[in-house]
């Protein structure tokens, strides 16, 4: 099978598409014929060697943790799923023609494989950081870097829970944020004052890592009311960096519920082939994404 790997830490150019042995499903796992794989910031952070404490690896290593596809092998002890079922979920080395998943759910009706591949880690992260930041119905949440995958999920989950959201993004994504019921404003010079004009901020999330932690603490008045998933320097300001996943099966179940109720939709901004993984990483690192980027197998 074809699989994307890297044999050394570095930039996108270290990614290679190689021939590899097919993996097999172990106990409590399923193997899928991959149809699409999600491209997440954690993928290129691991490729660069940034966050190996939470993601220890041995080189050469595969890439990717989110995927959708068709079950073609069921591991020992797995019940309720059969060969041929379309699923989406989380595993390892998902930038490949076959991948093993450790958490999965049946794909909701009407969802494409490309769309489904963009949900697992994104929804788990969104649910986790909303919980960790402690924002409640009736309060206002500020989301810095709100137009990407996690931001798109946060905005819609918050709306479903009765939480008001102020989102910052580039000028081209203002209408997109408003379509998700957020109060939108641009980042850049004067952004703090623009946010203040939109209302009081009870809690804030940093999703872009653009060096705004000090301002988010200023706006909320309490570093405990700020969470970052993108700025490794956040703890210097007393702000929690959230990088360890919670319950992925629970997140997938909630994603299925939200999607089925028409409360969650994350668009695919761009799709790439496995051979274009380096370009996908370069584009992901550049930011300005509207929704998700995925690899189509």
From TrEMBL:
<dbReference type="InterPro" id="IPR036291">
    <property type="entry name" value="NAD(P)-bd_dom_sf"/>
</dbReference>
<dbReference type="InterPro" id="IPR011032">
    <property type="entry name" value="GroES-like_sf"/>
</dbReference>
<feature type="domain" description="Enoyl reductase (ER)">
    <location>
        <begin position="10"/>
        <end position="295"/>
    </location>
</feature>
<keyword id="KW-0694">RNA-binding</keyword>
<keyword id="KW-0521">NADP</keyword>
<dbReference type="InterPro" id="IPR020843">
    <property type="entry name" value="ER"/>
</dbReference>
<dbReference type="InterPro" id="IPR002364">
    <property type="entry name" value="Quin_OxRdtase/zeta-crystal_CS"/>
</dbReference>
<comment type="subunit">
    <text>Homotetramer.</text>
</comment>
<dbReference type="Pfam" id="PF13602">
    <property type="entry name" value="ADH_zinc_N_2"/>
</dbReference>
<keyword id="KW-0963">Cytoplasm</keyword>
<dbReference type="InterPro" id="IPR013154">
    <property type="entry name" value="ADH-like_N"/>
</dbReference>
<protein>
    <submittedName>
        <fullName>NADP-dependent oxidoreductase</fullName>
    </submittedName>
</protein>
<dbReference type="InterPro" id="IPR051603">
    <property type="entry name" value="Zinc-ADH_QOR/CCCR"/>
</dbReference>
<dbReference type="Pfam" id="PF08240">
    <property type="entry name" value="ADH_N"/>
</dbReference>
């Amino acid at each position: 099978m074809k699989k994307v790997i890297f044999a050394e830490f570095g930039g996108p150019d270290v990614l290679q598409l190689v021939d590899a042995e097919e993996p097999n499903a172990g106990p409590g796992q399923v193997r899928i014929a991959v149809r699409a794989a999600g491209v997440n910031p954690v993928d290129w952070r691991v490729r660069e060697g940034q966050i190996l404490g939470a993601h220890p690896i041995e080189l050469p290593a595969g890439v990717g943790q989110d995927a959708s596809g068709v079950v073609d092998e069921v591991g020992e002890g797995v019940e309720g799923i059969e060969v041929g079922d379309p699923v989406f979920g989380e595993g390892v080395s998902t930038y490949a023609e076959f991948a093993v998943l450790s958490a999965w759910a049946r794909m909701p009706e009407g969802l494409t494989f490309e769309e489904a591949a963009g949900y697992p880690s994104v929804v788990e992260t969104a649910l986790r950081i909303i919980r960790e930041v402690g924002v409640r119905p009736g309060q206002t949440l500020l989301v810095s870097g709100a137009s990407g995958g996690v931001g798109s999920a946060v905005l819609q989950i918050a709306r479903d829970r009765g939480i008001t959201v102020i989102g910052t993004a580039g000028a081209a994504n203002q209408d997109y944020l408003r379509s998700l019921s957020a109060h939108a404003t641009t980042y850049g010079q004067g952004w703090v004052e623009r946010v203040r004009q939109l209302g009081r901020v009870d809690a804030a999330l940093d999703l872009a890592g653009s060096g705004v932690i000090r301002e988010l603490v200023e706006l909320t008045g309490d570093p405990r009311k700020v969470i970052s998933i993108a700025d490794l320097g956040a703890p210097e300001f007393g702000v929690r960096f959230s990088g360890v996943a919670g319950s992925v099966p629970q997140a997938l179940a909630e994603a299925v519920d939200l999607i089925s109720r028409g409360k969650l939709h994350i668009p695919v901004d761009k799709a790439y082939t496995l051979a274009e993984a380096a370009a996908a990483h370069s584009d992901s690192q550049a930011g300005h994404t509207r929704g998700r980027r995925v690899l189509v197998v």
